[in-house]
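Methods, example record. To illustrate the input and output format used throughout this study, we show the complete record for GCN5 family acetyltransferase. The sequence lines were provided to the predictor; the line carrying structure tokens was produced by it.
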Amino acid sequence: MQYTFRKAEIPDADSIWKLLQQAIIRRKNDGSNQWQDGYPNLNVVKNDIEKGYGFVLVEEETIIGYVAVMINNEPAYEAIEGKWLTNDDFVVIHRVAIDENYLGKGLAKKIMNYVEDFALQNKIYSIKADTNFDNFAMMKIFENLNYTLCGEVFFRGAPRKAYEKVLK
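The corresponding predicted structure is encoded as:
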């Protein structure tokens, strides 16, 4: 399959929100507390797009994946219980979601690889991310992509596992 990874645009917001709604239901069905409190929502998606953080994975004309990507912009990461591998510039990943019709095809990993390329293009050699303690699917992706568990951060009042990958 041929995929495109690009910045999200305002007309993409409803399609992205549908992906996130699917992911919210999946998290709930997996017994996770992640994303069960009204976050993320359509306003978060629109804000991501307006600030240039939103990116989509597209197959032909269909949006099949989403991620928010920020540079040096996660205040919660300043107060880690543990230790980051680096203290230089970093890319932050939030809100990874894949269309339920495309699960099991390695597309979350593909998104993560595109984010690595984005970081390198911006001469940034660190990617930081966090996830809920009960998001086993995302933890497995981090593990498979050689992310290091660095400790805990508190995001929106709850502890989360904090990961970093140093790019060569």
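Annotations derived from this record:
The mean pLDDT is 95.
DSSP finds four helices and eight strands in the chain.
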